């Protein structure tokens, strides 16, 4: 039978149905995602973090943190030409002076991968301290220096033998290194403040190492600073610049304007400065959160600074900066009008911009947009992004990636002052205690806690006042933190998805095979004991393993264990989880215990927080050795 | 030197008359005696180090005149005193004391009992009456028994061995692993220690030695991780019933392990142990000015310095020298005692600040001395040919 011809009337009907169907499809696609997390892509993001280039500038080597590799880019074609697998969580990268070796720190493997740049292969793996981050070789390429974030020191590694010869004490959270142009000094910065007395201004330092003696020769004090990131030296060695945060954690977080919560600044040092000077980079009504990567043009005319929470690069005019510094004899870091004297531009780039690199001729600036998997290329003369190098990541942003962008951006805070990552540096802690406003000024001082593997540890907040993570991160952040806008439902879901995805960092205190040392075994016995030394039973409620039970060592209850302070509205606290507690000093809900020991030697006089007063000193040491393995 | 029978003592060769012969014999004998006595002593005196002493007190900026310990760090001199830690550099003193506001970031306590240098990093460790402090390029981090795994706040001794810092405290020994932050405690529960009052520690590459006040000496073998004790075979008596059979006394104050030789200072003499044989030194039969020793510091297997309550003594393996203000006149005094016991007084123009000596350290050929009344810098001088005053011959007079 021949096909029936389609009548004009039928065609119009079909077209109408098709249009309705298309609109329906569009409506479905545009509809908000359901409250539960969207399907998480299994593709692996790259998360470029740091960049170095070959001596001739033709090749870029980019550390990709989440894909555990270095991606090699040909500058001329702007294409990825090779990939080199590294250890876990690579973080820092340096090139040997002759360009033949790349050194990549593997933060979660506690190693350095040595990559032959000709063969693009790992040729050697060197041991380091805990969580190696920044790396630099000396001018002769005989010694490698590695900043270890968790051990707070610098490994000095003899490259000939591949052995670590010594450790140099650095600041807490030692992370970034820079070699002076003359090769005589190495400068090291750190992301957590040095230990200090409770509720006193935070203090940090720039650790200066003499490369000839391989010793620390000076520590430049940085007052009121907690969180120092990249440091750079000018080509003539006369100007040093370190990016840093100035948190205002001692005053109640009552509002945000006028830099109330955080100041973003630079420390300047060197012969051009004649000491150290801190300068603001924020403006009166706009902030540029998380200053991170620093580059100084070869002619010392400009400083480029990534602001990782503000999706931008700040450009500073160096001559005008030096003129301002010399003219203003008094400290002016809190004068937010000052930046107008020397800030030339703010260049919008991608999400969470981190490492920066200038081309050898100074004409191009490469910026790692960590949460976009690409590199922004900026013309340093016009101060504009001229191209973007796609590193080949998944290309789409799933819930995890969207959530991570929300975590790091300061866009939600009033005038863009801070985001989650200001206090949770790289999703960890900041080592500080804060006075949040809702409970009254001077009340309920709280210590900043780790975010590792939080799922299943509800409720949240130090007193268990927030039943779940959406409550913890939801409207209260708008009301008591950002003072501006909060996350919408989808954003909140994405953020929670990301926070819950944060895994434990490797625990360095427990052997890889899980076996405990004799001291740790003894400590475990003490942790799990049910009787006093005289045989009398310890009440269940006062046994360590009662409250700190389960896979995350919390029974998720709220209790009074006698650690409340006169400034607390209630002594009842939420039992904290203990995994990786070794990394998160200070301790107790308010951070008043500076070390694990003090939890019991100072703050448990009546054995209300477990029975500890009958322990000998070595038994207490054993208990702590065990707790550190959790 | 071979002495010949004086020709005056051979009758067939005598060419002189009887009286002249007798006189000649006598003169010859006297000359020979003088040669026998003087030549060796002149050699001993010439070999013993000679110093010009410069003394520092609070008038010069020293934090306190009661100096417990001294540490040489290149061109810098650290002095641990009863009231602060002093650093002498470029001709001036800088003083460190506890800061109540800084607490853990300032010196643990003003009474600094011991000092040790980590030569690899340049960090200085200070044992105090209130904890242990690390001074690193101007930054101070303090460890106490409340804030860390340190066994006790009274830190009498401290020593550095690679990545480990060993402390001798009033409640046993502690060891800090500076890479991992782990503290390990050693006391009567896991060592042969029966007294836990440890007074001094001397770490070397392969061994660590502790002077245990009232408990002899403890040895830790780094490779086997085992402890061994050395005790006075006479028990805790002040008698020396079995000389050179073991440690001279249980009340040990200091140990020094150099070139595989252990030197021990006690309140009742000193001992030297080569791994097989002991040799004890007492005031009555050696050049020690006193049996009461605060510190012993060896240079090598044969040479050592002894800090006593009656002067600073030096032993070169054969001869002794004592440097001090004279006990009676307070005038500068240097005594030299040879192998046969002859004691000579060497004319000197200066002396350490006081005879009560608590410790020494070396700066090339110079010596720095901690005393009860100041810090002394012994500047090594070339030994001149001097006329020496013989104080005694053959054997030293027995002194109380």
Shape of chain A: globular
Read across the widest sheet of chain B, the strand sequence of neighbours is 22-23-24-25-26-27-31
Distance separating the two termini of chain B: 34 Å
Please give the alpha-carbon distance between the first and last residues of chain A. Answer: 79 Å
CATH topology of chain B: Methylamine Dehydrogenase, Chain H
User: What are the segments of chain A in which pLDDT stays under 50 over at least 5 consecutive residues?
Assistant: 1-7, 21-39
The oligomeric state of the chains shown is: heterodimer
β-strand number of chain B: 31
The residue-averaged pLDDT of chain A reads 93
The percentage of residues in β strands of chain B lies in: 35-45%
CATH architecture tag of chain B = 7 Propeller
Tell me the CATH superfamily of chain B: YVTN repeat-like/Quinoprotein amine dehydrogenase
Largest sheet of chain A: 4 strands, antiparallel
Please report the number of helical segments of chain A. 11
Structure explained in plain terms:
The complex is a heterodimer of chains A (630) and B (400). Chain A has a 4-stranded antiparallel sheet with strand order 1-2-3-4, with no helix packed on it. In chain A, strands 5-6-7-8 form a 4-stranded antiparallel sheet, with no helix packed on it. In chain A, a hairpin with a 6-residue loop joins strand 17 (228-233) and strand 18 (240-247). With 630 residues, chain A is of the alpha+beta class. Mean pLDDT of chain A is 93; it is low at 1-7 and 21-39. With 400 residues, chain B is mostly beta strands. Chain B has one domain: Methylamine Dehydrogenase, Chain H (7 Propeller), CATH 2.130.10. Chain B is 8% helix and 44% strand. Chain B has 1 helix and 31 strands. Chain B has one helix at residues 18-47, and strands at residues 50-56, 67-73, 76-81, 84-89, 92-96, 112-117, 124-128, 131-136, 139-143, 155-161, 164-169, 172-177, 183-186, 198-203, 207-212, 216-221, 226-230, 252-258, 261-266, 269-273, 278-281, 293-298, 304-308, 311-315, 320-325, 332-337, 343-346, 357-363, 366-371, 374-381, 389-392. Chain B has a 7-stranded antiparallel sheet. In chain B, strands 1-30-29-28 form a 4-stranded antiparallel sheet, with no helix packed on it. In chain B, strands 2-3-4-5 form a 4-stranded antiparallel sheet, with no helix packed on it. Chain B starts with 17 loop residues before the first helix and ends in an 8-residue tail after the last strand. Residues 1-16 and 394-400 of chain B have low confidence and may be disordered. The chains are: A alpha+beta (630), B mainly beta (400). Chain A binds chain B through residues 129, 151, 153, 165-169, 194-197, 200, 205, 207-208, 213, 215-219, 508-509, 519, 594-595, 597-598, 601-602, 617-618, 620-621, 624-625, and chain B through 101-105, 120-123, 134, 136-139, 141, 145-149, 151-152, 163, 171, 178-185, 187, 189.
């Amino acid at each position: 039978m021949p096909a029936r011809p389609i009548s004009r009337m039928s065609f119009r009907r079909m077209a109408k149905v098709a249009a309705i169907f298309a609109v329906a499809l569009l409506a479905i696609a545009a509809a908000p995602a359901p409250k539960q997390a969207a399907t998480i892509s299994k593709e692996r993001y790259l998360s470029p973090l740091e960049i170095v280039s070959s001596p001739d500038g033709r090749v870029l080597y980019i550390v990709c943190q989440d894909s555990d590799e270095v991606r090699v880019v040909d500058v001329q074609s702007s294409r990825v030409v090779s990939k080199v697998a590294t250890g876990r969580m690579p973080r820092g990268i340096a090139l040997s002076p002759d360009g033949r070796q790349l050194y990549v720190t593997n933060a979660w493997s506690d190693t350095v991968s040595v990559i032959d740049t000709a063969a693009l292969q790992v040729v050697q793996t060197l041991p380091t301290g805990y969580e190696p981050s920044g790396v630099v070789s000396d001018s002769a390429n005989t010694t490698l220096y590695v900043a270890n974030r968790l051990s707070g020191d610098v490994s000095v590694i003899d490259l000939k033998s591949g052995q670590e010869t010594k450790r140099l004490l650095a600041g807490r959270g030692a992370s970034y290194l820079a070699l002076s142009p003359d090769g005589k000094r190495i400068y090291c910065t750190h992301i957590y403040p040095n230990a200090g007395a409770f509720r006193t201004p935070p203090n940090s330092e720039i650790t200066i190492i003499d490369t000839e003696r391989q010793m620390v020769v000076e520590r430049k004090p940085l007052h009121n600073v907690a969180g120092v990131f990249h440091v750079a030296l000018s080509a003539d060695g006369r100007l040093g610049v370190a990016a840093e945060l100035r948190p205002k954690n001692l005053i109640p977080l009552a509002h945000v304007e006028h830099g109330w919560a955080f100041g973003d600044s630079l420390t300047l040092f060197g012969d051009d400065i004649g000491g150290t000077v801190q300068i603001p980079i924020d403006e009166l009504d706009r902030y540029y959160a998380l200053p991170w990567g620093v580059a100084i043009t070869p002619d010392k005319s400009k400083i480029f600074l990534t602001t990782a929470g503000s999706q931008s690069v700040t450009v500073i005019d160096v001559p005008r900066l030096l003129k301002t510094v010399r003219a203003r004899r008094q400290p002016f870091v809190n004068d937010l009008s000052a930046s107008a004297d020397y800030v030339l531009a703010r260049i919008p780039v991608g999400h969470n911009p981190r490492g920066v690199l200038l081309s050898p001729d100074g004409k191009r600036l490469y910026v790692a947009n960590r949460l976009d998997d690409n590199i922004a290329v900026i013309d340093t003369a016009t101060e504009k992004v001229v191209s973007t190098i796609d590193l080949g990541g998944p290309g789409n942003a799933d819930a995890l990636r969207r959530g991570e962008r929300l975590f790091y951006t300061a866009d939600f805070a009033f005038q863009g002052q801070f985001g989650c990552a200001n206090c949770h540096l790289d999703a960890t802690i900041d080592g500080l205690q804060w006075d949040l406003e809702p409970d009254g000024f001077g009340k309920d001082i709280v210590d900043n806690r780790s975010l590792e593997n939080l799922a299943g540890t509800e409720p949240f907040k130090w007193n268990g006042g927030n039943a779940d993570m959406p409550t913890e991160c939801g409207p209260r952040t708008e009301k008591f933190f950002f003072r501006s806008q909060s996350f919408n439902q989808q954003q909140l879901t994405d953020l929670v998805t990301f926070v819950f995805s944060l895994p434990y960092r490797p625990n360095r205190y427990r052997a890889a095979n899980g076996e405990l040392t004799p001291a740790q075994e003894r400590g475990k016995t003490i942790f799990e004991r049910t009787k006093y030394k005289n045989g009398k039973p310890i009440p269940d409620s006062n046994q360590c393993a009662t409250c700190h039970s389960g896979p995350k060592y919390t029974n998720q209850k709220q209790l009074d264990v006698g650690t409340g302070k006169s400034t607390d509205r209630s002594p009842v606290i939420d039992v904290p989880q203990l995994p990786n507690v070794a990394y998160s000093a200070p301790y107790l809900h308010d951070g008043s215990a500076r070390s694990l020991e003090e939890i019991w030697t100072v703050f448990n006089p009546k054995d209300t927080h477990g029975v500890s007063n009958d322990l000998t000193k070595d038994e207490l040491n054993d208990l702590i050795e065990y707790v550190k393995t959790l | 030197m071979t002495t010949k029978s004086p020709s005056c003592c051979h009758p067939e060769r005598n060419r002189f008359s009887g009286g002249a012969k007798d006189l000649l014999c006598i003169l010859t004998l006297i000359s020979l005696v003088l040669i026998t006595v003087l030549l060796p002593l002149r050699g001993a005196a010439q070999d013993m180090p000679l110093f010009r002493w410069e003394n520092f007190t609070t008038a010069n900026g020293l934090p306190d005149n009661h100096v417990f310990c001294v540490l040489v760090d290149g061109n810098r001199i650290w002095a641990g005193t009863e009231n602060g830690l002093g650093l002498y550099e470029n001709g001036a003193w800088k003083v460190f004391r506890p800061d109540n506001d800084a607490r853990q970031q300032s010196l643990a306590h003003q009474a600094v009992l011991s000092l040790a240098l980590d030569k690899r990093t340049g960090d200085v460790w200070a044992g105090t009456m209130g904890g242990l402090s690390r001074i690193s390029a101007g930054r101070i981090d303090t460890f106490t028994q409340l804030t860390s795994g340190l066994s006790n706040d009274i830190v009498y001794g401290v020593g550095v061995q690679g990545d480990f810092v060993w402390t001798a405290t009033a409640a046993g020994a502690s060891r800090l692993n500076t890479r991992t932050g782990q503290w390990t405690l050693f006391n009567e529960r896991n060592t042969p220690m029966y007294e836990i009052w440890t007074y001094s520690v001397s770490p070397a590459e392969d061994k660590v030695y502790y002077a245990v006040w009232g408990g002899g000496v403890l040895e830790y073998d780094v490779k086997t991780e085992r402890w061994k004790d050395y005790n006075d075979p006479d028990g805790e008596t002040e008698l020396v019933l079995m000389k050179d059979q073991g440690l001279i006394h249980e009340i040990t104050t200091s140990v020094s392990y150099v070139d595989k030789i252990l030197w021990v200072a006690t309140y009742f003499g000193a001992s030297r142990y080569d791994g097989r044989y002991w040799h004890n030194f007492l005031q009555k039969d050696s050049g020690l000015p006193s049996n009461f020793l605060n510190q012993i510091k060896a240079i090598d297997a044969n040479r050592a310095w002894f800090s006593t309550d009656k002067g600073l003594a030096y032993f070169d393996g054969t001869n002794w020298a004592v440097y001090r203000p004279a006990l009676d006149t307070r005038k500068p005094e240097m005594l030299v005692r040879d192998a046969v016991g002859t004691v000579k007084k060497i004319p000197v123009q200066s002396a350490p600040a006081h005879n009560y000596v608590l410790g020494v350290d070396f700066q090339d050929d110079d010596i720095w001395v901690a005393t009860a009344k100041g810090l002394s810098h012994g500047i090594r001088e070339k030994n001149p040919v001097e006329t020496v005053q013989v104080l005694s011959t053959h054997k030293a007079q027995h002194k109380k």
